[in-house]
């Protein structure tokens, strides 16, 4: 079984890397991902998402988490998790409506106990921001004394992805710390086509690339028997330092020479500063008993200090982002009930995101309602599980020519656990 889980780990991370390296052409997500490097992501698991929380204070024995590096120092199991997302956007502005959808791999993580309940190693690949949009607009151009309308179409994909290797260490029984450095790479592509009446469409492509190193830290405090003989409380905190890229952008178009297509560079490449902001998170999770727990969490990101040197418009739209979330989880299977519905764990929550953008004087806020369930492995020796979350969100406004989005999302987390580095006994 150890060889199987290592084989699965290697193949999954190679597959995930190939998927992240591709462009999402033909797909589209939120129109607000066209600003800067895209929409910031939280990368919480399906369980955390279904509770409406980021996950900095909540952990499960059978499910690894990216939320707080301090979690990785606890546990005896090797854990692998892959997350998959499907999101549907019902969009409307002051004149029209439409529907977008996006299916994507979320994150991949493996946590290995180097020392049981003491020191753990995490290896992960996940997106920090994501850009995926398809925006059409009719614009006007003054030519002499005449005005001519033209159709502009912009499609974009990419974002910032992190490959992270980190350690979690349990200093004392009720106190853990973690550190996670990562290699970040920025990859963006935008195609713009312009069509005038009775003329061929002209297409230009912008490619933006950059790399950098990132650092984040986590702490976790725990206590037992606070108000009863069964309860547990966990206090978690995280800090992510700013990430700075010296990014380069190239612009090209396609020229037809006879029957052949030739890529033509438009000008020389340009370099600009691009950055991700400082982030701080904190939260508390209270386990009333083995069957019920509740969490309240908060995260703040200083997007108002972030850089996007390729566009003053985009950079001026950035503002500080705050996320508030709260939710609960119920585990009826721990009551040893034989009822079919008792085989699942249930979660629900709500969260509010102030957004990192202010466009045309309007904050692009999002209100989320979440619910989910999880199914544990029938093998009593395993903590493997499948977790499913459902989210409904309302983002943006139709004021000032903006877009309002009603968002429906489904997230699946596949969690595999196995006792590794365990010496087998022969009878």
Describe the model.
There is one protein chain. Residues 1-11, 13-26 and 420-427 have low confidence and may be disordered. Helix content is 7%, strand content 59%. 39% of the residues are buried. The protein is built from 3 helices and 20 strands. The longest helix has 19 residues, at 2-20. The protein has helices at 2-20, 46-50, 312-317, and strands spanning 39-40, 78-92, 97-115, 119-143, 146-172, 175-196, 202-224, 232-240, 243-257, 260-265, 270-276, 279-289, 292-301, 321-330, 344-353, 358-359, 362-363, 366-376, 385-396, 404-418. It has one domain (2-128, 162-187, 195-418): Outer membrane protein transport protein (OMPP1/FadL/TodX) (Porin, Beta Barrel). By secondary structure, the chain is mostly beta strands.
CATH architecture assignment name: Beta Barrel
CATH class term? Mainly Beta
Radius of gyration from the alpha-carbon trace, in angstroms:
24 Å
Helix count equals 3
CATH topology: Porin
Low-confidence stretches: 1-11, 13-26, 420-427
Give the termini separation: 19 Å
Structural class: mainly beta
Q: How many structurally independent domains?
A: 1
Question: On the 0-100 scale, what is the average pLDDT?
Answer: 85
CATH H-level superfamily: Outer membrane protein transport protein (OMPP1/FadL/TodX)
């Amino acid at each position: 079984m150890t060889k199987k889980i290592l084989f699965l780990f290697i193949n999954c991370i190679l597959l995930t890397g190939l998927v992240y390296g591709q462009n999402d052409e033909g797909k589209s997500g939120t129109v607000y991902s066209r600003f800067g490097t895209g929409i910031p992501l939280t990368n919480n698991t399906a369980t955390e998402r279904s509770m409406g929380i980021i996950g900095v204070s909540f952990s499960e024995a059978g499910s690894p988490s990216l939320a707080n590096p301090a979690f990785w120092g606890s546990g005896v199991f090797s854990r692998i998790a892959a997350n998959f997302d499907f999101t549907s956007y019902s969009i409307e502005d002051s004149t029209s409506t439409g529907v977008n959808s996006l299916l994507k791999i979320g994150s991949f993580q493996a946590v290995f106990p180097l020392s049981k309940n003491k020191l753990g190693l995490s290896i992960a690949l996940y997106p920090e921001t994501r850009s995926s949009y398809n925006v059409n607009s009719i614009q006007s151009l003054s030519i002499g004394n005449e005005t001519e309308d033209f159709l502009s179409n912009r499609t974009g994909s990419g974002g910032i992805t992190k490959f992270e290797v980190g350690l979690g260490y349990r200093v004392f029984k009720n106190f853990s710390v973690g550190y996670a450095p990562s290699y970040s790479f920025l990859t963006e592509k935008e195609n713009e086509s312009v069509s005038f009446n009775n003329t061929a469409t002209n297409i230009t492509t912008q490619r933006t690339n950059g790399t950098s190193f990132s650092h984040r830290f986590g702490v976790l405090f725990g206590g037992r028997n606070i108000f009863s003989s069964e309860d547990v409380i966990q206090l978690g905190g995280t800090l992510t330092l700013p990430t700075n890229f010296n990014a380069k952008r190239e612009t090209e178009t396609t020229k037809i020479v006879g029957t052949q297509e030739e890529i033509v560079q438009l000008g020389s490449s340009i370099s600009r500063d691009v950055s991700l902001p400082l982030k701080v998170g904190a939260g508390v999770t209270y386990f009333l008993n083995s069957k019920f727990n509740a969490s309240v969490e908060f995260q703040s990101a200083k997007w108002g200090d972030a850089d996007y040197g390729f566009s003053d418009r985009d950079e001026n739209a950035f503002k500080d982002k705050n996320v508030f979330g709260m939710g609960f989880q119920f585990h009826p299977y721990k009551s040893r009930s034989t009822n079919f519905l008792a085989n699942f764990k249930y979660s629900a929550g709500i969260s509010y995101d102030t957004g990192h953008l202010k466009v045309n004087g309007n904050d692009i806020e999002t209100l989320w309602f979440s619910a989910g369930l999880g199914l544990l492995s029938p093998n009593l020796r395993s903590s493997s599980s499948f977790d499913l979350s459902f989210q409904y969100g309302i983002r943006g406004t139709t004021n000032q020519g903006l877009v309002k989005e009603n968002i429906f999302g489904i997230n699946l987390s596949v969690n595999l656990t196995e006792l590794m580095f365990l010496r087998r006994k022969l009878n």
